[in-house]
């Protein structure tokens, strides 16, 4: 590893020397070019490789989506209401179930660091706070539905949440996966 780091440092030093030396023909410095290259290099993040765990503080986008740094990931195996989703309670009164799910997830995470291991595609991940699986927690609270084909281990927790009438199960809601599918289809029709 130290040989690789040494080679990288030597290349960086050579590039910096080339860029910092004034251009004799035009009599101007290449410092702005170096600053632009450094800024671009520092802001660039390589996509996660298969099996690479993303770690750090997370921002909750909705009940099934987090942002870790520049990356947005969907929680593996669940479908949660989007942030703007509205459901109805047992008395048929509307309530903002999407915001409630996002708020609950943010509360569960608190200020803790989140670790997300990509599953399937690079945008879907099994995310944990400590040892707690956030997707499983959302399903157990009745705030998300499991994808029983992808995450069959979440099904018993969903059945218990349904039996106790927790979260979404306390009233009437539209399946978040169906809602997302309808929005995608409408978007395709509008674009095409």
List the helices and strands and how they pair.
Blueprint: H1 2-20, H2 31-43, E1 54-56, E2 58-62, E3 65-68, E4 71-75, E5 78-79, E6 87-88, E7 94-95, H3 97-109, E8 114-119, E9 121-129, E10 132-133, H4 134-140, E11 145-146, H5 155-164, H6 176-191
Parallel strand pairs: 4-9
Antiparallel strand pairs: 1-8, 2-3, 3-4, 5-11, 6-7, 8-9, 9-10
- SS elements, strand count: 11
Indicate the low-confidence ranges by residue numbers. 1-11, 32-48
Q: Using the alpha-carbon principal axes, give the shape.
A: globular
* Cα-based radius of gyration, to the nearest Å: 23 Å
Approximately what portion of the residues adopt beta-strand conformation?
15-25%
List the quaternary state of the chains.
Answer: single chain
Class per helix and strand makeup: alpha+beta
Order of helices and strands: HHEEEEEEEHEEEHEHH
- Distance separating the two termini: 50 Å
Count of helix runs: 6
What does it look like?
The protein is α+β, with helices and mostly antiparallel strands and 192 residues long. 41% of the residues lie in helices and 22% in strands.
Keywords:
11 strands; globular; 192 residues; alpha+beta; disordered N terminus; 7-stranded mixed β-sheet; two-stranded antiparallel sheet
Provide a compact summary of the structure:
Helix content is 41%, strand content 22%.
């Amino acid at each position: 590893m130290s040989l690789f780091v040494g080679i990288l440092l030597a290349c960086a030093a050579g590039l910096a020397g080339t860029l910092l030396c004034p251009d004799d023909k035009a009599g101007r410095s290449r410092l702005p070019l170096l600053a632009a290259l450094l800024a671009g290099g520092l802001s660039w993040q390589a996509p996660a490789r298969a099996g690479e765990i993303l770690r750090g503080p997370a921002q909750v986008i909705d009940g099934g989506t987090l942002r870790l740094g520049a990356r947005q990931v969907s929680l593996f195996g669940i479908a949660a209401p989007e942030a703007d989703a509205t459901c109805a309670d047992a008395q048929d009164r509307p309530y903002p179930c999407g915001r409630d799910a996002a708020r609950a997830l943010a509360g569960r995470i608190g200020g803790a660091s989140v670790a997300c291991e990509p599953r399937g595609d690079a945008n879907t991940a099994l995310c944990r706070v400590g040892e707690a699986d956030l997707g499983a927690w959302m399903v157990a609270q009745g705030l998300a539905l499991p994808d029983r084909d992808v995450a069959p281990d979440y099904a018993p927790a969903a059945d218990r949440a349904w039996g106790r009438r927790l979260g979404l199960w306390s009233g009437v809601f539209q399946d978040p996966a169906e809602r997302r599918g309808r929005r995608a289809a409408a978007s395709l029709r509008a674009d095409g």
